[in-house]
Amino acid sequence: MNKCKKCNVEMESGYTIVNDNIHGGLKIAKQQKGFDNLKNKIYVEICPECGKMELFISK
Questions:
Q1: With contact defined as beta carbons under 8 Å apart, do 40 and 17 qualify?
Q2: Are 4 and 37 in contact (CB under 8 A)?
Q3: How confident is the model over 12-36, as pLDDT tens digits?
Q4: How many CB atoms are closer than 10 A to CB 45?
Q5: What is the C-alpha R_g of the chain?
Q6: Are 30 and 14 in contact (CB under 8 A)?
Q7: Which residues contact 46 (CB under 8 A, 6 or more apart)?
Q8: Three-class SS string for 6-31?
Q9: Of 13 and 38, the one with more pLDDT
């Protein structure tokens, strides 16, 4: 895990971006089990102190 560059706090992982078809946008959600090994998936880490997000793409 990475540390937030602003707060120096360990960022929370296990989030991803999903399509919210009901509201017509994207949202951040906890990653579901069974989707760990997908290629080109976007992963999100969030700072629990300031809310800063970092995005990563799996390869």
A1: no
A2: no
A3: 998 988 888 887 788 888 887 766 6
A4: 19
A5: 12
A6: yes
A7: 11, 12, 15, 28, 52, 53
A8: CCCCECEEEEEEEEECCCCEEEEEEC
A9: 13
Residues 6+ apart with CB under 8 A from 30: 14, 15, 16
Dist. CA 7–CA 51, nearest whole Å: 10
36: its two tokens: 């760990």
Return the structure tokens found at 35.
């989707």
Q: What is the pTM of this model?
A: 0.72
* Amino acid identity for residue 21 in this structure: N
Residue 42 tokens read as 């976007």
